[in-house]
């Protein structure tokens, strides 16, 4: 068996991926900010009427539609929304703000969305 080399630093630059289009996907963007006590309150996070982030991404779909912050129609639109969210918090996240270059941070996000994957960022 031969394993092809994989370049972890540049794979996300592949602009040919359009799995999302073939699969007819769209996205719902959610955002939740909470303190440590709310983060650890599983019962509150599982409450479907709560706007607190659930533990599992798919559970956002069970939350009320009022928790949807944006409904992008393309991966690029979703990444633009995500960038706006990041700009609001990056000054508050310490070393996480510079641990990954923004080009890589948003490039991998765009690639994942084009592949039809979910995203979840937490700081």
List keywords for this structure.
single chain; 123 residues; mainly alpha; 2 domains; two-stranded antiparallel sheet; 4% strand; globular
Strand count, sense and closure of the main sheet? Answer: 2 strands, antiparallel
- Average pLDDT for all residues: 93
Give the percentage of residues in beta strands: under 5%
> Helix coverage percent of residues?
25-40%
Please report the number of helical segments: 6
- Intertermini distance: 40 Å
Radius of gyration over C-alpha positions, nearest whole angstrom: 16 Å
* Lateral strand order in the biggest sheet: 1-2
Provide the structure class. mainly alpha
What does this structure look like?
- The structure is a single chain.
- This protein has helices at 19-22, 36-39, 42-46, 75-89, 96-99, 102-114, and strands spanning 29-30, 68-70.
- With 123 residues, the chain is mainly alpha-helical.
- The chain folds into two domains: 26-71, no CATH class; 72-123, no CATH class.
- The chain has a two-stranded antiparallel ribbon.
- Helix 4 (75-89) runs antiparallel to helix 6.
